[in-house]
């Protein structure tokens, strides 16, 4: 792809040019001709195979094997950490300007292969084309943004004032330095951006990296790993492993030689890693990006068409499997019925099927387990309240072969029902009428999570919402998404409370520093004491 032809962002993707579809179709065809290939691990720059393998299956078709992957375990974890440790002595001494050059090269390769990565994301995650292209393009933008930050801060070397020592001239400098080998564990839903973004930041900072991706979706991160490896990083600076979370993931995340970890995934696993790391002899950085239960508030001053569109996109984009998905909707009573009517019309108009197809908006959920969970949740919501639409797993035609779930809206579910608080990670959103903004904010905040939130209302209401909402990203009046659609440099992404532990958002001005520790260098460079 010639990346200069058009620039991919979530915003531009709402009106895609024909050329974009042609490039996607060509990349998809190329990838389909390689279905079922076997892919290795990469440790210390070498391809590694294991006796045990597993398959990346298409969520849209139980019979489609996308690739065969290595089931790494404790031995490979050990080798990868040792390689990253050895490579750290080399990579951490590479001047920051050279690191920027190499990471920019990675971004360039990703852009060149953007459509192939997107086709892999569509096939293995079930993303529609625009969502798939978004994940791939965002990965390159995350790297470039981090490089901009490194350059903007001149490698984070800062001269400090000289202290007034009589007769001596002091030189004081603050230098941000890397930590060491860094583990990146990524989730199934954004396998490129959430592997590549953290890995890129860690590497740029001078750390070495081990990436372990989710077992449901290894194909795209494997292709992404090639982009890192082919850019010319020294052997061992970037290692790539596949294998089960409870064995490989556990062996990696409990390794004492790691200097830091970035985990993006569920709250339960993230907190277990955090607790485990707290047992060590000293505190090491743990960057956690966890789940969400993201609310949208619609007041009587909202543009209801914009609100319905934004809520629909955030509730059902990627089948509700975004950490930023909108799963709770609070609407002021006077406009409740009108809003629900609009939201229902939009939801019922969504197309579902093979997500690689141009006209499809909704693909399958990630696997049959998720589909079974969807049916259980719908049954429970129908019992506790009322389903306004959805509640079924469509199985007509091609959909019989995959884990498809109809987009579901539930109403009249009592506020103390656990599904108002648990992250389902499915195309299900709960609606409730509220008396006023006061009550909406109180309900919106009544959760352990604090990832994203959205409001549709007037400027005064937006001000109050920004001030009071406990969330890492707050959106007001966006047609493109009530709670979703972050982009590097524009809406850095992260959460508070149970949604994230870093306190600084990915793709933002304070993110790269999370991968760096400060060393202050204070040196006497001259003595003004005249010799006696
Ligand atoms: P998950 O089940 O927690 O898995 C995430 C990753 O952790 C996978 O690579 C998994 O490997 C691995 N893992 C599992 N158990 C492990 C263990 N004991 N030790 C080390 N690693 C382990 O999450 P998911 O289902 O892939 O993703 C969905 C979740 O991610 C949702 O909760 C969503 O909200 C969250 N998420 C958050 C953000 C954010 O930025 N805040 C972004 C995206 C997703 P296996 O696949 O092999 O089990
Ligand atoms: Mg898969």
Describe, in plain words, how this protein is organized in 3D.
The structure is a single chain. The chain is an alpha/beta fold and 532 residues long. The chain folds into 2 domains: 12-290 and 501-519, Aldehyde Dehydrogenase, Chain A, domain 1 (3-Layer(aba) Sandwich); 294-485, Aldehyde Dehydrogenase, Chain A, domain 2. 36% of the residues lie in helices and 21% in strands. It contains 14 helices and 22 strands. The protein has helices at 18-32, 74-91, 96-112, 114-125, 129-152, 193-204, 219-230, 245-253, 267-277, 304-316, 333-348, 368-384, 437-444, 459-468; strands at 38-39, 41-43, 46-48, 53-58, 61-70, 157-160, 168-178, 181-185, 208-212, 238-241, 260-264, 286-289, 294-298, 326-332, 386-389, 408-411, 428-434, 449-450, 452-456, 473-476, 496-497, 516-527. The protein has a 7-stranded mixed beta sheet, sandwiched between helices. Strands 10-9-8-11-12 form a 5-stranded parallel beta sheet, with helices on both faces. Strand 19, helix 14 (459-468) and strand 20 form a beta-alpha-beta unit. The longest helix is centred in the first third of the chain and has 24 residues, at 129-152. The chain is globular. The chain starts with 17 loop residues before the first helix and ends in a 5-residue tail after the last strand. Residues 56-57, 124, 216-217 line the site of magnesium ion.
Features:
single chain; 532 residues; alpha/beta; Aldehyde Dehydrogenase, Chain A, domain 1; Aldehyde Dehydrogenase, Chain A, domain 2; seven-stranded mixed sheet; five-stranded parallel sheet; 14 helices; binds NADP nicotinamide-adenine-dinucleotide phosphate; binds magnesium ion
